[in-house]
Design a protein that fits this description.
By secondary structure, this protein is mainly alpha-helical. The chain folds into two domains: 202 residues, MFS general substrate transporter like domains (Growth Hormone, Chain: A); 193 residues, MFS general substrate transporter like domains (Growth Hormone, Chain: A). It has 18 helices and eight strands. The strands form four sheets. Strands 1-7 form a two-stranded parallel sheet. Helix 1 runs parallel beside helix 7, helix 11 packs parallel to helix 16 and helix 11 runs antiparallel to helix 17. The chain is globular.
Length: 513
Amino acid sequence: MVEDGGEEEEEGESGEMPAATAAAPLQRCNGFLPGKEAACAPAAPAAPEAEAMLPAGGGRVETRLSRRRLAVLAVFSCYSLVNAFQWIQYSILSNVFAGFYGVSFTEIDWLSMVYMVAYVVLILPATWLLDARGLRLTALLGSGLNALGAWLKCGSLAPQRYPLTLAAQAVCAVAQIFILGLPSRIASVWFGPTEVSTACAVAVLGNQLGTAIGFLLPPVLVPNTPNDIDLMAHNISIMFYGTAIVSTLLFFLTGVVFEEKPKYPPSHSQAVLQTIPPEDYSYKQSITNLFKNTAFVLLLISYGIMTGAFYSVSTLLNQMILTHYEGEEVNAGRIGLTLVVAGMVGSIICGLWLDYTKTYKQTTLIVYILSFIGLLVFTFTLDLGYLIVVFVTGGVLGFFMTGYLPLGFEFAVEITYPESEGTSSGLLNASAQIFGILFTLVQGKLTTDYSPRAGNLFLCAWIFVGIILTALIKSNLRRHSVNSGIMNLDVKAVPVDSPVEPESTTLKIQSTL
């Protein structure tokens, strides 16, 4: 694999290497997709090196890394950051905004939960759009709606305008639908097999960093001044207008930087997918295949539990801290910052570890167990009266709970290949939003009526269920197998009605077993 010497190659340059020496396949197996039985016939011994060959030209596929991939990843991470910042900026100041708009804490919680509701309602059309219209349009919609929602918030700077700020947050929530499913797609389409998990972790890290900044900046920019509403409105305006300007700049950068895909595929697994004609793809059948994949369904539930628990803890953190440490709004934000920054470190470490070891199930299960232990420790030390202890336990909890997020994305892509990364990631996020809504409502009720400990123990019980489900997942690393050349099979994203597959749509993977 070589890296491009510039942004683009000349249009006339060939995308194929010289024809390789012919080699007979060891076996030809159908049965790569879930629900199909393998049918293999013995053949002559294979060549000593894996070959990925396009039947139409008989030439070897050339894979290259484009330098543009780093700019694509950076711009995506930045506008994902702003979207996450807008999600949490209300919740971390729940007491401030409840006083400013004259509404209840539950109504402020809905400014967070609207993100979750919008995702569940619109995820299927959004993933269809990603598959049918591509990466660039999806990215422009995400960054554009993010900027539009930010500007609408600038019109809600008066106590009686809660409905407008809710509508603006709903626009940002729709933008999120076109953001959360992209990390694994960007990583797969633009990055090579030795860096794909790290790239996915960095893309997720942008969203986590936005949450971290959302915990840190709002309490500093908008101190609680209940006796001076005009000053409070002025402080809120600084936050809203600053967010709008940054998000608008990132929208224009998205238009300049994003392209549908690099000129050459970065990996053999991407080369396989690019040989499948668009008319052979069925979004409905792809969804059906995913739900027939038992391993994916188990991951879908376990990922939803863990990520939903994280959303609930993030939304209610201010209320939990202020229950035991009155007047500590700024430190509540700092604790949230600690939780997310530690998780960002965990995400990068997990991404690097996966690229090095490919131990997806083992790593996911260990991180899940340690998250459970971390939440238990956080729960029983929250009311000790020492904020430093909460900082430490919150950091440990965040390292594992937030560090789990990219693990779930990449594990799903591995066990569902060659299905669309956007579809699998979208379904994982939809599951997370559903569990996030339920957990936030129930934990919020338990926290208000009883104590933060009751709400956290509720989450602990569910995470224990997630551990069991994760242990039951059968690890079948399909994408890794193709990139390593250890499979020889006919790959299709979805089955078609005709029992005869046209030769031109098949890419053969041959190697020594």
